[in-house]
């Protein structure tokens, strides 16, 4: 018997619809990132897990932001092998063959404004550095060598 409504689609299994929804919204990636953070926190330990933030995995390289250069050096030079072994054993969704550390701002989850808290006050800008001016800043003109020789 032919379909009486040719323009109407047949019912699809719920698992298929949910799978497409999760893929479109990125829920699977969020779940994998949560698992990765949990394994990282266990591997790195309590004091350091609050000073690091797990980033994304690109081409098998896990990007981790660290709050201080000293901690970066400790993790990269002395604990990288141990951390890689723990990540490989604990993470099922991604293959990790290296960790790349960088120094940056690390916030605890409680510090980040969520949808319930709304936009809070912005942090104050950092004071200007006492070092030499960077890009975009002009220096005071220097006296030419000829003028300096004439002075003394």
UniProtKB/TrEMBL annotation:
Residues 116-131 have a biased composition (Pro residues). Residues 106-152 are annotated as: Disordered. It comes from the Bacteria. InterPro entries: DciA-like (IPR007922). Residues 136-146 have a biased composition (Basic residues). PANTHER family: UPF0232 PROTEIN SCO3875. This is DUF721 domain-containing protein. It comes from Aquisphaera giovannonii.
């Amino acid at each position: 018997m032919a379909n009486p409504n040719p323009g109407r689609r047949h019912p699809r299994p719920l698992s298929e619809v949910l799978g497409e929804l999760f893929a479109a919204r990125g829920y699977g990636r969020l779940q994998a990132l949560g698992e990765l953070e949990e394994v990282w926190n266990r591997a790195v330990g309590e004091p350091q897990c609050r000073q690091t933030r797990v980033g994304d995995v690109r081409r098998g390289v896990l990007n981790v932001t660290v709050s201080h250069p000293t901690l970066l050096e400790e993790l990269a030079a002395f604990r990288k092998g141990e951390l890689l072994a723990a990540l490989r054993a604990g993470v099922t969704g991604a293959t990790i063959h290296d960790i790349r550390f960088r120094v940056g701002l690390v916030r605890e989850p409680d510090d980040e404004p969520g949808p319930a808290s709304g936009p809070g006050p912005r942090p104050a800008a950092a004071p200007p550095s006492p070092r030499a001016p960077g890009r975009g800043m002009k220096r005071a003109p220097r006296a030419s060598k000829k003028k300096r020789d004439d002075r003394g």
